[in-house]
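Q: What structure does this chain adopt?
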Amino acid sequence: MSKQPRISFEFFPTKTDAGHEKLLTTAAQLATYNPEFFSCTYGAGGSTRDRTLNTVLQLDGEIKIPTAPHLSCVGDSKDDLRELLHLYKNAGINRIVALRGDLPSGMGMASGELRYANELVEFIRKETGDHFYIEVAAYPEMHPQARDFEIDLQNFARKVRAGSDSAITQYFFNADCYFYFVERARKLGIDIPIVPGIMPITNYSKLARFSDSCGAELPRWIRKQLEAYGDDTASIQAFGTEVITNMCERLLDGGAPGLHFYTLNQAEPSLAVWDNLKLNR
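A:
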């Protein structure tokens, strides 16, 4: 590795005061490692709009780590989006993760004036110029709703050409799929950084269920080993840390510009990998 990789951590806004206090404690612990930024998710159809806004402003203002809100266009009008953009801009937020967003339960098709992430990126650029550093999503194993890999790759290219600065991938457990995706993107002339998303392994049943729903392949050898551990949480976590550390080493050695950890509002699983990688603090 020629330089210190870009490291970032993702949170989700909580529904309770107790959960929010735990999130802030976790963020304060992660902040001691000096990540480049935090990000905070945005619920389906904007369902966590206010909680996302409040969490972002608190992480950025009190924890003192630059924080990027996720912003999705599904279910929001241009006026809603415009208001949020200017709230964030006026608060000194300068990075955004721009997504189409998930459809709320029961919604058969996208609603709102903007339907796709490339349209959202264009809208952000039109409204705020170059104020925001815009991250978009990438899917090395293909978006679960895409018809095929080639179409999904072209969708990614449209988001980039609309004005994105870098991309964060869906998590995966096979480094080869990341390298193949980056190679294909480069052949299309896409030269922005593509940062792999990393999901620590801490709980087999939740991970398997979540992976099946979002299209992230959980390799059979990992499934079988995790199944063999049963309820042995310590063994699951030790195995998970080893698997993820080895994958991250390969990604960074192979040229990945950094790592984006999906923390699930926990510090220890991500930091165990960070410490194994001996990254600078």
